[in-house]
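Hey everyone, long-time lurker, first post.

I ran two proteins through the pipeline my lab uses and got sequence/structure pairs for each. Pasting them in order. The first:
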Amino acid sequence: MRIDLHCHSTASDGTDSPAELVRNAAAAGLDVVALTDHDTTRGYAEAVAALPVGLTLVTGAELSCRIDGVSMHLLAYLFDPAEPALLAERELVRDDRVPRAKGMIAKLAALGVPVTWEQVERIAAGGSVGRPHVATALVELGVVPTVSDAFTEEWLADGGRAFVEKHETDPLEAIRLVKGAGGVCVFAHPAAAKRGRTVPEAAIAEMAAAGLDGIEVDHMDHDAEARDRLRGLAKDLDLLVTGSSDYHGSRKTVSLGAYTTDPEVYGEITRRATGAFPVPGTGGA
């Protein structure tokens, strides 16, 4: 089995629609794909309706969190999307994305970069607005060559010249909310240092004690040394180890299935979840 547990669609900052994502996942030879858009479940219905035979969909979301001043992302899988407490927190985070983007645009204007809200809104195309949309605007204007090049201290990285904070959930609270909604929690790309400051291992241990299920080890932003270190940490903390592409369509160079999760780990994730269950494809439109 080939299992990719971290993918984005146009419901947040990917470039494939949810329907295109599942079709492309099947074409890439995946058996299981997770839809984990940022702080939203808006793409679920379209993805399920288009799900090809032979492909299983894991519903999820990538939650924006912050601990000790460091931003981090928590992958939440197979939770009940209608559970009120987690839904309210996702809406709070999502609603803060627009003023945050406008704040970044204002900072860029002060730096002489003519990004506009209309441009970012067009790029987002109704998705949950995030830094990648602002980064794409910088690419369109020729300020940086790629989206990744916008995530530096010069521009949009944490603490960068045009960075603006947004509401982010304490991960211990996020874990509690996800568990309350019957879901499973995995810390996304914990050693992605090029994105900014990373969470110290002591904090990961605290999250493990609070119910964190796993850490995403095999990821494009982790080198071999980081992966080895994280595998050791996962063993010490009795955490599951996942691998994922963090696919964003054409917004990133990584391909679907570039990194995958072991079938036994996937099986354990599904066994732990009680809020929702994987959806088998039935040959959607």
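...and the second, right after it:
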Amino acid sequence: MTITLKQLDYFIATAETGQVSHAAAELNLSQSAVTAAIKGLEIDLGVKLFERTHTGVRLTMEGSRFLEHARVITSAVTAAVRSPLREKSGLTGKLRLGMTYTVVGYYMSRHYARFRKTYPQIDVELLELPRDDLERGLLRGEIDMAVMLVSNLAHTDDLVQEVLMRSNRRLWLSADHHLLGRKDITLADVAAEDYIMLTVDEARKTASRYWDTAGLTPNTVLTTSSVEAVRSLVAAGIGVTVLSDMVYRPWSLEGQRIEVRGLVEPIPSMDVGLAWSRNRPIGPAGATFRAFMSVTMGGGG
């Protein structure tokens, strides 16, 4: 039996949300990854943990019993791993922390809240800025550390980067889109469709890289800096888009379903990570934040 902590995390998230899609969105993973983990867990345990319903999934009797054990195990491991950090929870100091828009809205909120609760005596000055302004602030010493899309980092010689999470990019479609019937979908297939282009956090610049590599151009019918607008337009069947799993949610604000599919061509992931100046030592508060994020992401899958 080779049960992993990731399997337990995925199982707990699915049990708490009642839907594999919701658990996947919460964990910033694909639905297939969550489904495979749960299936592997059921095989190892020799029992069925969930049964399908018209609204999602619900725990079986065996699943309910195992949920209690899973929560005890993950809580114990988390407490054990974080105990060295908690010994320093009285640490004081100031941390000037920069973040980009997408990171603040779709990744860092819960981690930031946990950090503030764990280290209430560290004074955190939080700045939301575009990527180029964050890099400039790090180089000038105006910002101590940044959580940003390090896959877009420009000053790689002067800035140290540490990846925290890689988020796959996939095709978003409406629930009745004809491409859902295809076994394999290519960028050429996508280029033949109306396309909704997101511009926030250099998304358009990033997209142009893999479109240019493929020698194709999307048929962009609308550009917007709003992820929610993209979500609504795709769900309504106005167009398709390629975005990362980190910002994916299965429903639009209007309650319409959004489906996702992988593409045949390799699409680069969106990498979220820490960045700081190579020429300045990390202070105690910054080192604590770095250790906290490392432990959090290492334990959370």
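Reply from user beta_strand_b:
Welcome! Quick read of the second one: The chain has a mean pLDDT of 88. The radius of gyration is 21 Å.
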